[in-house]
Amino acid sequence: MSEGHGSTPGPPPGWAAEQPPPYRGDGASPWVAPGSSPEPAAAPDPSVPPPGAPLPPPPGQGFHGRYGPPGPHGPGPHYGHHPPPPVLRPGIIPLRPLNLGDILDGTVKLIRSNPRALLGLSAIVAAVSAIPLAVGQSFTFSWLGGLVNDPESALTSEAPVNAVVGQYGGVLLSMIIQFVAVTLLTGVLTRILGRAVFGGKLSAGEAWRLVRPRVGALFGLVALTGLIMLAPLVLIVPILALAAANTDPVLYLGLTLLLLVLYIPYALVFSVRFSLAPPAVVLEGRGAVDAMRRSWRLVTGGFWRLFGIILLTTLLAGLIGSIFSTVFTFAATAVALIGAGSTGAVIASTVLLAIGGTLSAMITYPIQAGVNGLLYADQRMRKEAFDLVLQTAALEHQRQGWIHSSVDDLWLPEQADQAPGSQTP
């Protein structure tokens, strides 16, 4: 075969003379007659994709959103696709609506980020409220020890009366102390949480100075909530008193169980409805009644979700706390029984019970306060687009390189009004 036209390259080495050269994708025919010129190339058909180009999607199956047509392993990103940027997380939570894992993880990070303030304050409050309860229980254990060694003397003496008075007196005194101390502790822990969302820290003293103007509203909130929770007792107590006068134990027991079954849903509904009121008092500067209304509105539309999370975390915190308290309670019981009511046994059992109660409450208080505070932030992000306010502030502080104390003002309700599509009630 003669050599072709100069514009057509010859075959590569090793190819037979009669074999055409490989197709090069230039649109010209690989065969050229000897001594003739190639025909002009036809204009490319726009409906035919060039060689090597990806095939277009079938009709009616174009790109959807950021992803192309589904492949053998699911939809894949089209050309030029960039994954969305990661969610901002300057502090203990991501600045978006939270799920259960975020809330539990944020609570743990809250405790780990500032353990001295959270665990230290919780330990002080727990010890102050646990000591009266431990003293009352020690009288009961002391009487039980005497009952084992000398039943006749223990039953005829004033020891049973002292045990009952000490037990219930300690419980009553412990409840009064908890009312005061836990209310203040909740306010301080909530203020620390408000700063920790942005990655900042507050000492116990700084948090107390910020919470001090809200103490009156906090006590008013706890008092009003307690009255609402105890209101059914106005009817329950007289009914039980009349049933007890009937001297029919079956009727009394059945009526007690019925009233208890009716009271439990009442208590659960109002406890969940008002669970976001303390953060509203501390972070938004609202009064007691206004904070209760605010909590009621925030919970509306998400009651069952909040109910499940609060119930689950309360059981979890109680389980963790019982691990510490149960060990010391068994030890205190053994010491009281072995000591047979001696002064040393009473003191030792009191100390053991106080330690167990302190360790238990030191864990449960921060968990409950952290969960309620994060649920409050989550509901504001879901209902008021509050995450946009938090993200804007976080980007600004990231640019500046430090957390200013003015971030505390971002929790005020007027800040949420600046977010698009938000309406703060």
From TrEMBL:
Transmembrane segments: 117-135, 171-194, 215-244, 250-269, 302-324, 330-355
Annotated region described as Disordered, given as residue ranges: 1-87
Sequence ranges of Pro residues compositional bias: 9-23, 41-60
Short name of one Pfam family: DUF7847
DUF7847 domain mapped to chain residues: 100-360
Keywords (A to Z) from UniProt: Membrane, Transmembrane, Transmembrane helix
PANTHER family per record: EXPRESSED PROTEIN-RELATED, OS08G0107100 PROTEIN-RELATED
Protein name per Swiss-Prot or TrEMBL: Membrane domain of glycerophosphoryl diester phosphodiesterase
Phylogenetic placement of the source organism: Bacteria, Bacillati, Actinomycetota, Actinomycetes, Streptosporangiales
